[in-house]
């Protein structure tokens, strides 16, 4: 990991991050806990995720410029997010980072950084969260 570069730069900037996100959503649609929460057309979701993660990892503030303040918890309230779904989301991201050959130290840092938001979005108990 290079502490002189942002995470965004270390992940390959826009093109590298987009490859990770596309790989990630390929896994999400195969994950039974997550797939029902996403629309058939993932292109708008991929675009927003790219904008958000670009900003979140130290790149240009694309998400805020396009959509205003992220308010991610509020934007996810309409979806039943459980701890199990947060775990599955992180698992898909971890696998996508591995598939894109992100070095272990950086991959672990990225996953650790994403744990905060992933669990912050939890709004439903496991028994309520059946889609």
From TrEMBL:
<dbReference type="Pfam" id="PF01152">
    <property type="entry name" value="Bac_globin"/>
</dbReference>
<protein>
    <submittedName>
        <fullName>Group 2 truncated hemoglobin YjbI</fullName>
    </submittedName>
</protein>
<keyword id="KW-0349">Heme</keyword>
<keyword id="KW-0479">Metal-binding</keyword>
<comment type="similarity">
    <text>Belongs to the truncated hemoglobin family. Group II subfamily.</text>
</comment>
<dbReference type="InterPro" id="IPR012292">
    <property type="entry name" value="Globin/Proto"/>
</dbReference>
<dbReference type="InterPro" id="IPR009050">
    <property type="entry name" value="Globin-like_sf"/>
</dbReference>
<dbReference type="InterPro" id="IPR019795">
    <property type="entry name" value="Globin_bac-like_CS"/>
</dbReference>
<dbReference type="InterPro" id="IPR001486">
    <property type="entry name" value="Hemoglobin_trunc"/>
</dbReference>
<dbReference type="InterPro" id="IPR044203">
    <property type="entry name" value="GlbO/GLB3-like"/>
</dbReference>
<keyword id="KW-0408">Iron</keyword>
<keyword id="KW-0813">Transport</keyword>
